[in-house]
Design goal:
Elements: H1 21-34, H2 38-50, H3 53-60, H4 65-95, H5 103-127, H6 131-145, H7 153-163, E1 167-170, E2 176-181, E3 189-193, H8 194-202, H9 216-226, E4 228-234, E5 238-245, H10 247-257, H11 272-279, H12 291-302, E6 309-314, E7 325-327, E8 340-348, E9 357-367, E10 387-393, E11 400-408, E12 414-418, H13 428-432, H14 437-451, E13 461-462
Parallel strand pairs: 8-12
Antiparallel strand pairs: 1-2, 2-3, 4-5, 5-6, 7-8, 8-9, 9-10, 9-13, 10-11, 11-12
């Protein structure tokens, strides 16, 4: 039926099609069924229902140059049919002598006819371009090399055509549009002009600028490891020196290298920062809305290999040397009495000989603060600081953490005496008498971390050199006022 005279609105351009990816799935399924490829159609339908196919295709996508040319020919067939139909419709309007169409209607039809013919000729030239297959092969070579941005949006358009998840049309104005998913993992479908789509289709994906030894991810790790702050705090007995990643200096580096704010001209989807956002940080894309999250994750990445160490040094009774080395450890918070990793002399008394033997023993040490209520032999309250140490010991096949009480010497350093007894083989219950519940918890947590490393599960090194006399003068009597607490440790082979 002819369009009534003057109904110019009816001939105006329609709104662009609006697709969801499900529409494209359905369309392709119908197409395969009509071609008699029911099995492929069933697979595609099943993939759609699992909502998985397109989401994962970015990790599995492979290009075949021959198949790509075939898919382009499918586009060619549909555009040819659209052009034929629109060409015929507008010719009939121009040839109509019934008076149903106004001169304005015919002028619009003439413009559309010119545009349809011009665009179709340009389209056929582009799909018959001998360099098309050459370009697709170059793309194939790039993908096969493995060094490419796997979530490249342009590659997503390529994949959509390969999978058949696309649509194409020449609309009534003669404009050729291609509809395909915007990017991997997204259900958004965008309309692109043919030339825009074809350029993306035949362009190799961008280089992978994130991964590898020269990628920006490694750059952030390397630079972040150099950005640190050092400071100290003390309480008169211990001094804690802290080295940590400097967030403030990290932000300065971020602003100078990447930028203080999002810039669409710099932070493009294919730029190193656009790639970093989607591949490493899992952001949908890098834009104004995701900028703050991108910055946060970038600084977190820079801090991964940065130093984050708290070292606690014990204030010794004198400036003497001694055989003690304290350092390492610490939980990194500001609370007192944090466990430290220390090498201290521990006196072991083998049950076979009763001879005192000194060992340099690495372990975890914490200062006790619990009021024990004990007095020395003269009835005076014990004022001497109490340190408890967890160290690795025991006979063969029975190695575990043991506990010792540590006292400072005048020449510097600490000497320890095991707390193990007949009734408390590891000395743990005895150790608890000198520690608060919180200190016990800290010590056990730190020793678990420390001894979980097999390299730290070592027996002490025998001290053969002459130690200062005052190492033997340290008075442990107030802490061992019962015979049941005398340590009896079997002789073991020492490394």
């Amino acid at each position: 039926m002819a369009i009534p005279q003057g109904n110019f609105v009816a001939l105006q351009a329609l709104k662009p099609k609006e697709y969801k990816i499900g529409d494209l799935y359905l369309q392709m399924t119908d197409y395969l069924i009509k071609k008699g490829e029911a099995q492929k159609a069933a697979q595609l339908k099943a993939a759609e229902e699992r909502n998985k196919y397109w989401d994962e295709v970015g990790n599995e996508f492979k290009i075949e140059a021959v198949n790509s040319a075939g898919r382009i020919n499918v586009l060619n067939e549909k555009i040819f049919k659209n052009a034929w139909d629109e060409n015929d419709k507008n010719k009939r309007i121009l040839q109509d002598r019934s008076g149903y169409y106004s001169e304005a209607d015919k002028e619009l039809a003439r413009q559309r006819l010119t545009n349809i013919q011009k665009n179709y000729i340009a389209f056929t030239k582009s799909v018959s371009d001998p360099n098309l297959i050459k370009d697709v092969n170059a793309k194939l070579e790039k993908v096969n090399s493995g060094n490419y941005f796997k979530l490249d949006p342009d590659l997503a358009k390529n994949a959509a055509v390969e999978m058949g998840i696309y649509d194409a049309e020449m609309n009534q104005d003669g404009d050729i549009k291609v509809y395909s998913p915007t990017k991997f993992g997204s259900n958004d479908v965008s309309a692109q002009d043919w030339n825009e789509f074809l350029t993306a289709y035949r362009t190799p994906p961008a280089d992978d600028l994130v991964n590898g030894k020269n990628g920006v991810y490694q750059l952030l790790l390397d630079e972040g490891s150099k950005i640190k702050d050092d400071w100290e705090r003390g309480d008169g007995v211990t001094t804690k020196s802290i080295t940590q990643f400097s967030k403030q200096r990290g932000e300065t580096f971020f602003n100078s290298l990447i930028g203080e704010k999002y810039n669409p001209n710099i932070h493009t989807p294919k730029s190193e920062w656009g790639q970093l956002a989607v591949t490493s940080f899992g952001l949908p894309e890098l834009n104004e809305k995701t900028w703050d999250e991108f910055k946060k994750k970038t600084l977190e990445t820079m801090a991964i290999q940065a130093e984050n160490v708290s070292k606690v040094n014990v204030k010794l009774p004198s400036d003497g040397g001694g055989n003690v080395r304290t350092g390492g450890g610490g939980s990194g918070d500001d609370s007192e009495n944090e466990p430290i990793i220390a090498d201290n002399v521990i006196e072991l008394i083998p049950s076979t000989t009763g001879k005192k033997t000194n060992y340099l023993q690495t372990g975890v040490m914490i200062r006790g603060s619990k009021d024990t209520g004990k007095t020395d032999r003269y009835g005076n309250a014990i004022k001497q600081p109490v340190w408890i140490k967890s160290y690795w010991g025991g006979g063969k096949g029975n190695e575990k953490a043991y506990y010792a009480i540590m006292l400072p010497t005048k020449s510097g350093g600490f000497k320890g005496k095991p707390l193990s007894s007949k009734y408390d083989k590891q000395g743990f219950q005895a150790a608890r008498k000198y520690l608060t519940d919180k200190e016990v918890e800290k010590l056990v947590k730190k020793q678990s971390e420390f001894f979980s490393n097999p390299q730290n599960r070592q027996f002490g090194r025998l001290i053969t050199e002459q130690l200062p006399q005052d190492y033997n003068e340290v008075d442990f009597t107030p802490y061992f006022n019962t015979s049941s607490n005398k340590p009896k440790i079997k002789t073991t082979s020492r490394k």
